[in-house]
Amino acid sequence: MHSVVPDRAALQQRARRWVIKIGSSLLTQDGQRLDLSAMQKLVQQILRLRAEDIEVVLVSSGSVSAGKCHLGWAQKMTTAEERQAAASVEQSALIHAYENLLAEGGTHCGQILLTRDNFRDRKRLKKTRSAIEMLLRMQMLPIINENDAIVDLDNALGNNDHLAALVSNVWHADLMVLLTDQSGLFTADPRARPDAEMITEGMAGDPRYEHMAGGSGGTVGTGGMLTKIHAATHAARSGATTLIADGRIPDVLLRLHKGALLGTFLRSGKFDRKLRRDAWTRLQIHHGQQWVIHPVRRVKDEVVAFYSETPPFTAIPIFNGQ
């Protein structure tokens, strides 16, 4: 009997809503000025995904890293005021670069700058979702970033991996792709342990992965592998699967869409349970039985199921067919 849960290649091919986060190291030249050649290659891939009816929301880093170059700062910034200044200098240049590259493909972008407050308040959360969906209906590419120019400790998100996960939750994404300058998650730091092996597939939220991920990233971005593991756990709460892959691989996004087994694939347990539930429901209908899911019991059971391997709902038979 075949499993009702597709393999990772099938899930990659079937995903229609992608949140793609591109790290600073992929968009800048050693954390300095924007790398327009690298940006162009990534934008062209996104346009080809859209041409295949895949909805894409882009979470882009790069504004702070490139902005510090214009300000003459060589070292990694340590204060909020420095980040705010760098972001305000370079944010417009980043979007201008994207707009020019997208215009070559006959489309445009819309910028959405967010802080933690957009996800704390229900009214703001709904406005965030509606802004994303409106841009998509207008055939524009939503480009999301943290509003680094005004954030403080109370409403800062911290890194764009976390932001991408929150966007995946709000927008109900199928797949969150975190492009970085690393091949994926390894059992140990491959720079110190040549025998380290890459985790090609696993379950988001597995506590072993936090230990494997170790510390933060390099000198360019604010996140590292650990923040990506945390982001995958958060995205999985709404059923989104996560892919951590090397953005320097030629046509990496297109290859992932075709089912290539690149990087680290972290499943959502909630999504897998939904597939099993839907398959079980179809099986009952096929056998001549119709079922209804009690709404109160369903909410309770899904909460329990999220933290355990118990069945995700309680079904009550209401009709037995002949």
TrEMBL record:
UniProt keyword annotation of Kinase present: yes
Described function: Catalyzes the transfer of a phosphate group to glutamate to form L-glutamate 5-phosphate.
Enzyme Commission number(s): 2.7.2.11
Pathway noted in the entry: Amino-acid biosynthesis; L-proline biosynthesis; L-glutamate 5-semialdehyde from L-glutamate: step 1/2
Species whose genome carries this gene: Acidithiobacillus ferrooxidans (strain ATCC 23270 / DSM 14882 / CIP 104768 / NCIMB 8455) (Ferrobacillus ferrooxidans (strain ATCC 23270))
Protein name in the entry: Glutamate 5-kinase
Compartmental location: Cytoplasm
Annotated ranges, domain Aspartate/glutamate/uridylate kinase: 17-245
InterPro entries assigned: AceGlu_kinase-like_sf, Asp/Glu/Uridylate_kinase, Glu/AcGlu_kinase, Glu_5kinase, Glu_5kinase/COase_Synthase, Glutamate_5-kinase_CS
UniProt GO BP: L-proline biosynthetic process
GO cellular component: cytosol
